[in-house]
Design goal:
It comes from Periophthalmus magnuspinnatus. The protein is α+β, with helices and mostly antiparallel strands and 151 residues long. It has one domain: Tetrahydropterin Synthase, Chain A (2-Layer Sandwich), CATH 3.30.479.10. Helices cover 26% and strands 27% of the residues. It has a 5-stranded mixed sheet with strand order 3-1-2-4-5. The relative contact order is 0.18. It binds ligand LPXRUNBV and zinc ion. Zinc ion (ZN) binds next to strand 2.
Length: 151
């Protein structure tokens, strides 16, 4: 039977799932050079991005978490906490750095945006509450965008 207009609104007991995203930009330089290829092959594969002195990007990263909207707080997680995770995982180790020279991970892994997304995922997944990390999306340029979801 339909509740009368005077009855309190039905509390929605269904589990509601939300996706929240925080965006952060950072600047870094790199050179696309695979240790598994010869210098000639590197030049062939990466072209101008293999120039020895490297180049820079203003990367824009979108970190998305997915989870239940908490009935009491109304939050999937506090975006202030996500901001701190981004500071620790992205800004401190990557901002204004040379990815290949300042980040040990990229001393043996070519610093493509795909690999950068994997790096950020692997470190972010340890920082956010278990099971919540959904997606890392990186805009390397206005035209180049990479998505990684932990697969
Ligand atoms: N699959 C990938 N391909 C390329 C990557 C990458 O990370 N993954 N990265 C590069 C270079 O880093 C380069 O800086 C970006 O490529 P490009 O689009 O050529 O950059 P432009 O500045 O030339 O931008 P346009 O506006 O398209 O000219 C290359 N490939
Ligand atoms: Zn580049």
């Amino acid at each position: 039977d339909r509740p009368s207009s005077s009855s309190p609104p039905l509390t929605d007991m269904a589990e509601r799932i939300g996706y929240i995203t925080r965006v952060q930009s950072f600047s870094a330089c790199h050179r696309l050079h695979s240790p598994d290829l010869s210098d000639e092959e590197n030049k062939k594969v990466y072209g101008k991005c293999n120039n020895p002195n490297g180049h820079g990007h203003n990367y824009k990263v979108e970190v998305t978490v997915r989870g239940k909207i908490d009935a009491e707080t109304g939050m999937v997680m506090n975006l202030t906490d996500l901001k701190r995770c981004i500071e620790d995982v992205i800004m401190t180790p990557l901002d204004h750095k040379n990815l290949d020279k300042d980040v040990p991970y990229f001393s043996t892994v070519v610093s493509t945006t795909e690999n950068l997304a994997v790096y950020i995922w692997d470190h972010m997944v340890r920082e956010v509450p278990e099971g919540l990390l959904y997606e890392i999306k990186i805009h390397e340029t206005d035209k180049n965008i990479v998505v990684y979801r932990g697969e």
